[in-house]
Design brief:
Number of strands: 10
Strand content: 5-15%
Helix content: 55-70%
Length: 641
């Protein structure tokens, strides 16, 4: 490598001397992207390297044997190629050129053939076996980390469009990021192997040939950096349009929207127009950079690649062999043929940096997402007292964003242990937001919420939320068994047997007993038919009863029922109210409902309007006040009197 180092040093001095003498601006412009890759604060080499090490650690920890072989395979592959296509062909040509016995060439060909046969066996296992087995494990390892983090991040992250865009982009690019990293590893090992073997070959026969390839490499590297930056920015620019297009696609193929689309065909037409608009926006973004992209690709692949090697270098070789007679014809042929490999190697090197940089940009988004520390998730904290205690809100005010609208304004409320509180009000009054604060899915903008004489943010978040059983207004059913949809956890069969009585009891208390008795597989019934033909799609009311059973199963100290009877018929609603009187005895309960039949028996009713408590008292007291609650009650009175 000493002559190669000396040659590169001399070349750098020549370039520097000519630049200083001529002060030609074009060279400075050409070298700026190369220097920018190293010096640019946004994409420092150190940061790019750290991101690749992050991916390597993840992959090696997940599948160490696969990763070791993954490094060995490209080295083995290129070594065999060098022995066959360089040393082997050169030996055969020299035998012909210098009239050596044919048996010598035949013996060498036989040895190469034997080596090929031996190395094909592990190669076949790797290509057709290991990659299909272990790559999904690598995808899974990264996505599991992201899914775990997604389950922990604060809800405020979903309210931030910029963060959510990065989150979606990171998840959608997770598998591609692994693929790009593995591809880059493969390319790097192959490039290093080719450079080592072919570099020595050139140093022995014709060191000057490296100069042609080096010049081509530097120019290709500079062009590749510019091209990859354009491609990355293009991917970022089209991401919002792709999200919109993908959303519309889901609307058309998910059965959740099927009925609405058929009943309101104009909606489908409007969505089709928006789909076309999003698609056109994606095309327009591509068009914006089309000329630059084509120009840079032409420059990289031909102007600074094929022309320098195929035109200039072949002329140089012909001159040395035919005119100067300082090179054998067989060596000239091998040198030119191998130039393709060396040029490919240099092209690989030219692409490794930009590819690593591009992949690093996506890895940055993934790492940033994984590093996000939830502000509302506290893993330490004081132990929650086992004694009874009150839940109290003092001067609680809340905004979703710093400059946004005030949703709750100066809420003061004290709830005793075992008290049943109904929160009523028209849409937009702040009822659900108040419940989210009680569950500590958000923190108040100002004011405090305390439970058992301690601010709830002093407790371990998981421990505190474990005390709360909730039925969300927009509850979801999951593609799992009925029992797992109640427990909200994966269950082994032996675990199910232990918990079966409690699960059944929870379903019975929610009014699901009649439907449960009709299910052929009972608690093992698969919910939804999406993954199992024997699965069951429950009706809205049945699904709501399952959602309610989750709160009963949890055996929590605080129950929150957000519109618990919205999908139930009057009889089922009456039965639910009676069941809840028993199941919720001794627990603190919050009801949120527009149907006042659910709230009339509450110990206390809180009337919200525009984020403030405007009325408070029992059903009879509020009717006597003849205020907003009474007005709402009389509007619905025909249903309940």
């Amino acid at each position: 490598l000493k002559p190669l180092t000396h040659l590169c040093f001399r070349f750098s001095r020549i370039v520097k001397r000519k630049y200083v003498r001529s002060r030609h601006a074009s060279l400075k412009a050409l070298t700026r992207p190369f220097l920018g890759f190293v010096l640019n604060p946004k994409s420092k080499f150190k940061d790019v390297l750290k991101n690749q090490l992050f991916l390597w650690k993840l992959c090696f920890k997940t599948c160490p044997g696969f990763m070791i072989y993954y490094l060995y395979d490209p080295f083995r592959y290129q070594m065999v190629i060098f022995m066959e296509h360089v040393l082997g062909i050169r030996y055969v040509l020299q035998c012909a050129e210098f009239q050596q016995p044919f048996t010598k060439a035949l013996l060498y060909i036989g040895i190469i053939l034997l080596i090929n046969i031996i190395q094909i066996i592990p190669d076949g296992f790797f290509i057709y076996g290991m990659q299909y087995k272990y790559k999904p494990k690598l995808y899974k390892a990264l996505k599991e980390q992201m899914f775990q983090k997604a389950s922990e991040i604060d809800l405020t992250c979903y309210d931030n469009p910029s963060y959510y865009n990065d989150f979606v982009l990171g998840v959608s690019e997770a598998e591609k990021t692994i693929d790009r990293f593995l591809n880059m590893l493969n390319v790097t090992i192959q490039a290093i192997t080719v450079l080592f073997t072919t570099g020595i070959f050139y140093l022995v026969l014709d060191p000057a040939g490296i100069l042609f390839v080096t010049i081509s490499f530097i120019l290709q590297f500079i062009v590749s950096i510019k091209l990859n930056k354009i491609n990355y920015q293009n991917r970022v620019d089209i991401n919002p349009h792709m999200r919109k297009r993908d959303y519309i696609s889901r609307v058309f193929y998910l059965k959740d929207y099927a009925k609405e689309l058929r009943l309101h065909p104009n909606t489908g037409t409007k969505l089709e127009q928006e789909f076309e608009e999003a698609n056109d926006n994606i095309i327009n973004e591509h068009k914006k950079i089309a000329k630059k992209r084509v120009g840079l690709m032409f420059s990289r692949n031909y102007a600074v690649g094929d022309f320098i090697i195929d035109a200039l270098y072949i002329t140089y070789l012909v001159y040395k062999a035919a005119i100067l007679h300082s090179l054998n014809y067989s060596d000239a042929v091998i040198l030119f043929n191998r130039t393709g490999s060396l040029r490919g190697c240099m092209r690989m090197f030219a692409q490794i940096g930009p590819l690593a940089q591009e992949n690093s940009l996506f890895t940055d988004k993934i790492k940033t997402f994984l590093k996000n520390e939830p502000k509302l998730t506290k893993t330490d904290g004081i132990a929650i007292p086992t004694t009874d205690g009150d839940l109290e809100l003092k001067n609680v005010t809340f905004k979703y964003t710093e400059d946004g609208k005030t949703i709750l304004n100066n809420i003061n409320l004290k709830v005793k242990k075992g008290e049943h509180i109904a929160i009523v009000g028209y849409n937009g009054a702040g009822k659900t937001t108040l419940i989210k604060l009680l569950m500590r899915l958000y923190d108040p903008t100002s004011g405090t919420i305390s439970y058992k004489n301690h601010n709830i943010n002093e407790y371990n978040s998981a421990d505190y939320r474990r005390l709360i059983g909730v039925v969300f207004q927009d509850f979801q059913m999951f593609g799992a068994t009925l029992a797992e949809n109640v427990v909200m956890d994966h269950l082994q069969k032996d675990e199910l047997e232990e918990k079966m009585h409690k699960i059944k009891s929870s379903l019975i208390n929610s009014g699901f007993e009649e439907k449960l008795n009709k299910l052929e597989d009972g608690l093992f019934t698969q919910v939804t038919t999406e993954f199992d033909k024997k699965g069951v799609d429950f009706s809205g009311g049945e699904s709501q009863k399952v959602a309610i059973s989750r709160a009963f199963y949890k055996d929590a100290e605080i129950l929150i029922m957000d519109e618990p009877s919205s999908a139930l018929d009057p009889i089922a609603e009456y039965e639910l109210n009676k069941a809840m009187e028993t199941a919720a005895k001794g627990k603190t309960v919050f009801y949120i409902s527009h149907r006042l039949s659910t709230t009339r028996d509450a110990d206390r009713i809180i009337m919200l309007e525009q984020g403030q408590i405007i009325e408070e008292g029992t059903h009879a007291q509020l009717l006597a006040q003849n205020g907003k609650y009474a007005q709402m009650w009389h509007t619905q009175a025909g249903n309940y009197n």
